[in-house]
Amino acid sequence: MNEQTVSRKTFDEVMVPCFSPAPFVPVRGEGSRVWDTEGRDYIDFACGIAVTSLGHAHPELLRVLHEQGGKLWHVGNGYTNEPVLRLARKLEALSFAERAFFANSGAEANEAALKLARRVAFERHGAEKFEIVSFTQSFHGRTFFTVSVGGQPKYSEGFGPVPAGIVHLPYNDIEAAKRAIGAQTCAVIVEPVQGEGGVIPADPAFLRALRAACDANNALLIFDEVQTGVGRTGTFYAYEDTGVTPDILTTAKALGNGFPIGAMITTEALAAYFKVGAHGTTYGGNPLAAAIADKVVELISDPAVLAGVRARGEAIRARLAKLNDRFDVFKDVRGKGLLIGAELSARFKGRAKDFNAAAAKRGVMMLIAGADVLRFAPSLIIPEADISEGFKRIEQAFEDVIGAR
């Protein structure tokens, strides 16, 4: 039987139109390069939205995929399995946590975290302590609960009444947080660096204030590290560099390097409130995903790899500064490690998509974070040659948008 011929046009004919994909179709990747159906190559600065942090077709991950694929793919959570137990031990050894719950995505990990926080508050303090504090421009997933907790109303509007007891505050506003976190608050959820919201790092003093307010009001502090975790900011988890330890942490994206897996990690005392039957999943923690994630964690937690993340981050910032010297296009460049946001200046306001599209035409896959921010989240081990070639192409793309200067 011959394979059906498909193209970007096929998407419009067969898929639900909740995405608007690029005009080209990637078919193969190796390291930090991707090739499309026409054989064109692209430097990958997007990483599948901060996911393929060890690049495409990493030989060690391919080996694990084949080995575990020949043993056991799935058994369901009526049974445990060896890879998931090894992965849990590894994540706990690298963090404050003592217990892990595995899911299939960051949204599911956040759903578990929020449900656990409400269950803990209900059992410890009663039904009136259910309020969840989040922050404007935050992003926590696309389930109805997580998208409602997220601070971008455009993603929750038009689906009916949102769940009650959710409060949104300005990010990095200590006084607003002190006023709002109180007796009814069961949890505060925060990204150490807001990703979708514009690549905005949290002020360490802000995170310390959240920790203090949670402690004073018997509330739990949840760090959403779906995007920042697993080495992205230059430490294995971003909280390590903040001086603040959360009660619950969520992780996904890079954890499986593209194979779907997410996790919620927490303390033994809090995990005890998720008694048998209180929460669950069919696919979460299956042996195939867990085996791949275990190898990802082993490779990225290497101190040399994490040091390389920090060095590569500085190298990309230096190249962005050179671009800005020539084109005067950025108002601000911010972020941590290899999660970098370049905010466009006022004269290019709202044109992030234009720059992104121009880069794609020149052979670079990039991201945006809102209408005004170009987001860079390449592989944590991207070679210097690919960084150099990528920025050569980006410079050409800027010429296309702005003109030669």
TrEMBL record:
Signal peptide annotation: none
GO terms of molecular function: transaminase activity
Binding, pyridoxal 5'-phosphate: G106, A107, F139, D224, E225, V226, Q227, T282
Pathway: Amino-acid biosynthesis; L-arginine biosynthesis; N(2)-acetyl-L-ornithine from L-glutamate: step 4/4
Manner of cofactor binding, per the entry note: Binds 1 pyridoxal phosphate per subunit.
InterPro entries from the UniProt entry: Ac/SucOrn_transaminase_bac, AcOrn/SuccOrn_fam, Aminotrans_3, Aminotrans_3_PPA_site, Class-III_PLP-dep_AT, PyrdxlP-dep_Trfase, PyrdxlP-dep_Trfase_major, PyrdxlP-dep_Trfase_small
Annotated compartments: Cytoplasm
EC number of the protein: 2.6.1.11
Protein family membership: Belongs to the class-III pyridoxal-phosphate-dependent aminotransferase family. ArgD subfamily.
Name of the protein: Acetylornithine aminotransferase
Species assigned in the record: Paraburkholderia denitrificans
Gene field: argD
